[in-house]
Amino acid sequence: MMRLLFQWVMSILYVIQNAIMMLIMGIVFFPWALVSPKGASTACNTYATWAIWTARWMVGIRSEIRGNIPTDAVLVPAKHQSFLDIMMIYKAVPQPRFIMKYELLFTPIIGVYAWRLGCVPVRRGKRGAAIKAMLADVESGRVPPGQLVIYPQGTRVRAGDYTPYKVGPYVLYKETGQAAVPVATNAGLFWPKGTMLRKPGLAVVEFLDPIEQGQDQKAFMKHLEDVIETRSNDLMREAGFDPDAVG
């Protein structure tokens, strides 16, 4: 009981200091970010480094990147369980660009950073229009070359839960002609959705084997879902959590 209470106290302190540091860094770097994408990327990298480092010594979350990190222009369809997996991917790849919720563009300060980083905003609930907007942004060159991160399930998914995969990754795969590098994670076990409690353990983000060009929609979507879900479940079992026991 005392250990759990201590973890709660440290988790709350971690969340508070993390929010304060995000605000401070956002304001300090804002003028640079406003005039240069380099300023935005430096700010985000600095914040992610701080958040991951303090998570280790304040709440016991260690982080590990596995697999071959892509460095060329590819799609990165990733399992999304936590804000932590976003930061780990951001720090791992050299030129990250995220497919993100359209509403974030209008968030004070954060919207400017997202715009400067070359993120691609999409409107939820309007799948056809969202896909056309994604393609238009990618094809127009507004989104610089790099690693375009997309969440196939369209949202954060609690560890052990299942949400169907959406077709967006295949559309980008087909239209851009790029390979797709799937990503698995177990980060949601330690930085769960919907709570301030942070749990100690080893959070892993793993880059899997690329899916090269040439697959049709059915084959691609099945392959993508199979490899991401299977490996994410393996990583969760490695951490002592049985995803088959949920539900």
UniProtKB/TrEMBL annotation:
SUPFAM superfamilies in the record: Glycerol-3-phosphate (1)-acyltransferase
UniProt keyword Transferase, yes or no: yes
Signal peptide: none
Protein name, UniProt field: 1-acyl-sn-glycerol-3-phosphate acyltransferase
Residue ranges annotated for the Phospholipid/glycerol acyltransferase domain, each copy included: 74-188
GO molecular function, one term: 1-acylglycerol-3-phosphate O-acyltransferase activity
Pfam families cross-referenced by the UniProt entry: Acyltransferase
Biological process per Gene Ontology, one example term: phosphatidic acid biosynthetic process
Residue ranges crossing the lipid bilayer per the database entry: 12-34
Pathway where it operates: Lipid metabolism
Record's keyword terms, sorted: Acyltransferase, Membrane, Transferase, Transmembrane, Transmembrane helix
SMART domains per UniProt: PlsC (SM00563)
